[in-house]
Amino acid sequence: MSAKRLYAFIVFAVLSFNLYGQSGLTVGKQFDNMNNFKGAFYDLSDPSGVNMRVGIWGNIQFPGTYLVSERASVMDIISYAGGLSASAELSEMKILRMKADSSYEVIKFNYSELLWKDDLKNFVPAPKLAPGDLIIIPGEPRLFWREYLTLGLSVISTILSITLSIIYITN
User: Fold this and answer.
1) d(CA 39, CA 80)
2) What is the enclosing helix (H) or strand (E) of 56?
3) Which in 16, 26, 59, 102 has the greatest CB count within 10 A?
4) Which sign, positive or negative, has the C-alpha torsion 4, 6, 12, 18?
């Protein structure tokens, strides 16, 4: 009797895996204009307009190459890429642009004033993007108080465990 139940379970499992494998289900939410959500190429193009490829690297949620409208700004690309990570350094953002003679030009811009200051008299926005531009968002990992607390508690609990083990073994 249990052999029949085991056989029925195996047949059911094989059939369900086979049906699930053929269902076409994918992980992640599908977007209308996004051809490759899991990879590093994102198609956010305007079918009726002129489009360009722009890359974004660094401390961003979804780095990669984006196919966007020629009217897209740096802020648009940052928004398309899911926003900045907590470790992004806004005062040292750069655009790497290839010139006509195949040399590269580095254009630096600062968005920290935009986010942290009320007076924007000296704010200079990033230049208009060109096809092939690469936006670079530098940064360093930062530890916040909860990370320090977690690290401290881990060290204290390890020391306490070792101390209690030594006391228990010696007694």
Assistant:
1) 14
2) strand 51-58
3) 59
4) negative
